[in-house]
Structures are given as structure tokens and as C-alpha cells.
Design a protein that fits this description.
Helices cover about 60% and strands about 15% of the residues. The protein has about 300 residues and is α+β, with helices and mostly antiparallel strands.
Length: about 300
């Protein structure tokens, strides 16, 4: 689906879910490199930027959250920028970007806010909207980490094994997506500064703000990575301690029951007619009392040594 939004001095062409026919129309109307046109139909694996034939091509990967699978996945926005136009292509997975485009289509007067002779401030607005969308995702990861920490220290270590792996996977995937954004934005900043076809004032200030967004998000992800790793180690330590405690209890039980079992076996043998207490009407109770005494004595000895 191709939509054109006209500004005073440039045009914004947005293509949602681009297909071969859209690529053909772009090739006819604009002088775009065939390789860049090919990229439109091929999912990109990384964020990148290239300058060619008087325009800049950039492919940005931004994360989106799949609520059904609880996974963070990359969604691609491709940009073609020159002094006279911006072309954006996307797959409609980024709600904030879709809403941004829809607002310009519904409210034509929004174009009056961009009277610049070249479109770099509109591009800044697009990217600023996309980066603003990332902060709530970071906040959700922080909340997930808080919940994991709370559950660990309230005795739910077993339940948190799977939850920690999910949160750690999402943080790792988010980091893969956001890793190179700062460098690409710096490259874009230098491109707008050095190319004479872009004439917006204070370009550096605007794009420095985007670089700050990328850096702030990356720093938050670094802190989250360290935190979830620490929580995973803590959870594993608590699980190991709990397992050791169970094994210690079972070992104490087995040690205590061994002499009792031995005594029961000895007195249960019928090979000796002169076995002590055989035939004594109180023999069973005497033996039982002796067994209990042995068990209590061993428990007291273990307690004194601090074994439990």
C-alpha cells in the first residue's frame, strides 16, 4: 500500500508491506540503486546505511513485542532520503510508526509544521517517534526483572527458572537490535551536515538528541543484562542450597535409620533360641524404646555439631 504526503518543499512516500509492483513503480519514478530496491523485498538482518547517487539509504531494525509468544522480534523500517523526498517502507509491525503516518494522512495541516526546504527534520520526527516507542519496552523489561527478583526471594526459585530464561532472551534480542544504532545515527548526522542539498538549521542538535536516545537505551539494556545475569546466578545458588539442604536431611534420616534397621534385623533372626528378650512379654516395647533412644541420641549429637 503506497501513500504520498506532500509537504511545501518535499514529498513523503510511505509504502506498507511493499511488493514487487511497488518496487517497480519506485524504480520508474526515482533513480534508486537496484541493490537498494532489492533490499526492500528482502528482510534485513542488521541496521545499516549507505549513500548512493545523491540520496541516503538506511535500514533500521526496531524491536516489537509478540504478546502471544512473549518474544521480542525485529521489525524493519527502510528509508530513502534526498533533498526532495523521503521514502519509507515497513511491514506495519511498529504501532507508533503506523500511527505517526496515519496522523499525517488524517490531519493535512500537520505538514505545515515542516516548512524546511529539505526533509531531514521530518526524518528526525520519524526516528524520534520510533525511539520514544522503545522506552516503554525497556520499562517492561525492568518490571519483569523486578518481579523475578521478588519471586526469587519469596521462595519460588523453581518457577523462576523458565521466567529468567524468557527475560534474558528478550534482553539479548533487544541488545542485538539496538547495538549499532548509535553509530548509524552518527553517520547520518555527518551526511546531513556535509551534503549541500540539506539546508535545515541546527541539524546536529536534532540528531545529537537521537544519538542520546540510542545511548540511553543501550545503557539501560547493559544494566538489564548485568542484572538478569546476577539474578540467574542468585536463583541457581538458592536452588543449589535448597537441594543441598534436602540431601542433608535425607542423609541424616538414612544414618539414623541404619542402626535401627540393623537392630530390627538382628532381633528378627530366628537362628538363636537364646536371643535376649525372646519370650519376654515386654520385649517388643523394650527393643522399641532402645531404638527410639538411639535415634534421639544421634539427633542430639548431630544437632550439637551443627549439622542441621
Amino acid at each position: 500500500m503506497m501513500q504520498e504526503i506532500k509537504f511545501k518543499n518535499f514529498t513523503w512516500l510511505d509504502i506498507k508491506n511493499p511488493g514487487p509492483e511497488d518496487v517497480r513503480r519506485l524504480s520508474e519514478k526515482y533513480e534508486l540503486h537496484p541493490l537498494h530496491l532489492k533490499y526492500i523485498l528482502t528482510p534485513s538482518q542488521r541496521t545499516k546505511m549507505d549513500v548512493q547517487n545523491g540520496y541516503a539509504y538506511a535500514a533500521f531494525l526496531f524491536p516489537y513485542y509478540n504478546r502471544r509468544t512473549r518474544e521480542i522480534k525485529p521489525a524493519e523500517v527502510e528509508l530513502f532520503v534526498s533533498g526532495k523526498y523521503i521514502i519509507t517502507t515497513h511491514t506495519n509491525r511498529l504501532e507508533s510508526f503506523t500511527k505517526f503516518v496515519r496522523n499525517f494522512i488524517r490531519q493535512k495541516d500537520l505538514t505545515n509544521d515542516y516548512p524546511d526546504r529539505s526533509p531531514e527534520r521530518l526524518l528526525y520526527g520519524i526516528l524520534e517517534e520510533l525511539y520514544s516507542y522503545l522506552y516503554p519496552m525497556v520499562d517492561h523489561l525492568i518490571i519483569d526483572s523486578d518481579n523475578v527478583e521478588k519471586e526469587i526471594f519469596t521462595g519460588h526459585e523453581n518457577k523462576m527458572v523458565q521466567e529468567i530464561l524468557i527475560v534474558r532472551r528478550n534482553i539479548t534480542d533487544f541488545r542485538k537490535i539496538a547495538q549499532v544504532h548509535k553509530n548509524i545515527l552518527k553517520k547520518m548526522q555527518h551526511y546531513f551536515r556535509d551534503d549541500v542539498q540539506y539546508v535545515m538549521k541546527k541539524t546536529d542538535i536534532y540528531y545529537e538528541n537521537l544519538i542520546d536516545h540510542a545511548k540511553e537505551i543501550w545503557d539501560a539494556l547493559e544494566n538489564l543484562k548485568e542484572r538478569i545475569e546476577a539474578l540467574q546466578e542468585t536463583n541457581e545458588s538458592r536452588l543449589a542450597f535448597k537441594l543441598n539442604d534436602i540431601m542433608k536431611t535425607l542423609t541424616i534420616i538414612s544414618v539414623i535409620t541404619f542402626p535401627i534397621t540393623l537392630m530390627a534385623g538382628i532381633f528378627g533372626m530366628n537362628t538363636i533360641k537364646s536371643m535376649p528378650l525372646v519370650g519376654d512379654p515386654n520385649g517388643f516395647w523394650i527393643i522399641l524404646a532402645f531404638m527410639v533412644s538411639v535415634a534421639l541420641a544421634m539427633l542430639a549429637a548431630f544437632k550439637k555439631k551443627g549439622w542441621f
